[in-house]
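Q: Here's a chain of 686 amino acids. Please give me its 3D structure as tokens.
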Amino acid sequence: MRVHFRTSHGRRHRRIVGALSAALLCTAGVTALPAAANTPPAPSPAGAPRPTPAPRLPGGLAATPPMGFNNWNSTNCRAEFNEDMVKGIADLFLAKGLKDAGYQYVNLDDCWALPTRDGNGKLVPDPQRFPHGIKAVADYVHSKGLKFGIYTSAGIKTCNPAGFPGGLGHERSDAQQFADWGVDYLKYDNCNNLGVDAKQRYRTMRDALKATGRPIVYSICEWGENKPWEWASDVGHLWRTTGDISDSWSSMLGIAKQNLPLAPYAGPGHWNDPDMLEIGNGGMTDTEYRTHFSLWSMMSAPLLIGSDLRKAAPETFEILSNKDVIALDQDALGKQATVLASESGRWTLVKQLADGARAVALFNETDQPQRISTTAAAAGLPQAAGYRLRDLWQHHDTHTTGTVSATVPAHGTVVYRVTADAHWASYPPAVETGTDRTPLVEAGTPTGLRSTVRNLGGTPAEQLTVTLRAPRGWQVKATSPATSRALPGGRALTTRWRITAPAGAAPGRYALPLTAAYRSPRGARVTATLPGTAHIVVPPPAGTTSAAALPWLTAGNGWGPVEKDTSVGESDAGDGRPISIGGTGFATGLGTHATSEVGFYTGGRCTAFNARVGIDDEVGDRGSVRFEVWADGARVAGTGTVTGTDAATAVHASIAGARTVRLVVTDGGDGIDYDHADWADATFTC
């Protein structure tokens, strides 16, 4: 039996995979089989060949990755999930241009039914949520020129603790009911499956859907536990490759890393699914959400919006409706991007496109700006004198003589569409803007910064002016040249700046964009902007101070927010419990959930960090993690694998001279379930 520790969090589904008796299995109408393997995904290396071409389902469905909406990430099972909400989403697809951008499916997740079937074994829609029934909602969605999806589980119950009926043993009846309602898409989850073989369960529903005669896209939500990429290409149209996503940088990043090596298994009609989008739910920055959307599109992933569009900000719609990026996801060739290079958090992804072009994503997972560079030749393009370079977030065209490069902001991604173009010289030269770091600024104290502008093209960037813009009240001064009459191709202009935030400015992140404005030889005016930031920081007090009493530079968790002086609750801030490790309680500390990172500004004023670390007692003897302390990018202390059976472990780190310190928790190697990791009695001595 395997269950998540908490079920209050929307995406932490309750999963029961344990085998039951043969008699119970027979009662469910299936044959007793050994329990399915319950191990995390073990992807093949990128580019690993498959012995034979993957078979696929007939009918031509999901020729490109499905695009649409699913309510779960934003509403969970709350009362706001109802008929009016679903109809409102369909209306917004048209009003906000999402249908025009390619989004088709409006999908229901769990909690749409009553907990029991009727006397004929049929599913019954919840009359409070859906007073007019499911067919009426499907008809409304169809009237908008959209498609309608629904959810159930390949078990006797769905994943919600309320225990809504699942499809195991009722496949033909449920499939026909879905078809009669006008369902176009089925998400088939993996909870309460009685240990029945996954292949058998998912193939049975495949056959039931086929028997209805209605075209229904079939989404296998098996969490990647039985490597569906190896066997499901003729079972479903898409399959989950990972556990559930949450609205955090660490969760999104971890899932992307699991899904990237599976590129050989994706293609038209059979897609890797790294779970739904979190864009707009508030747990990441807009820069991180653009990275989320970029990576999912490069990976040819289904694009299922997971935010409540009725409450979404304009920035959310701007990201979700980026047709240049969506075109990569929906490219007819159906090639998932592969990893061309990955080193120290700097990633280069390449995606082959149907027209012969290449999409190149330069992705920075670190917390500082990073220069990431490749070439058109390395991306697979033929030798040429020049190439058209389209920036898919800035939406402008320039040219390069071969270098494809950008200084990418922390947690950011730059995406180019690169094409060998005989008319390359008609486009302005590509100019790369960058800074050497994200400045940490103590209010009232000057801080230095260095910017670099590079001309990647074959023609000069004329009348070049570099500008660093700061918030009102800040002082910014260039202490070296910030202009050039003509910057030749292949040359760079480096400028030094002195930045001063006003005394009393509040701690936090502030926009600090760097702009290079120039003219092409043909007179076209071009502006290239790096959306940089500065962070106003407060030096730590002298003496020994609890980590929970100090402000954070960054704080990220696999589930839920980082907590001060309690364990992590996996959902809302303040929902944790008193910290307890190995039967010992602690009054202070940080409650985290792997994978996690909490950053502090120490400003060179601290000498030591100390803590007692371990898995919180609230998860029993389960969970496994590793604790690490990093100072200015160097690992200075850490533990081996710590499990729920271990007593608190002492961690001491010398951090003399370090400007920043990061407390990192990684997975112990068995997935992040139950990984409630406490930094108890954590203190800085300064």
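Q: Can you summarize the key feature?
A: Residues 455 and 530 are 15 Å apart (CA to CA).
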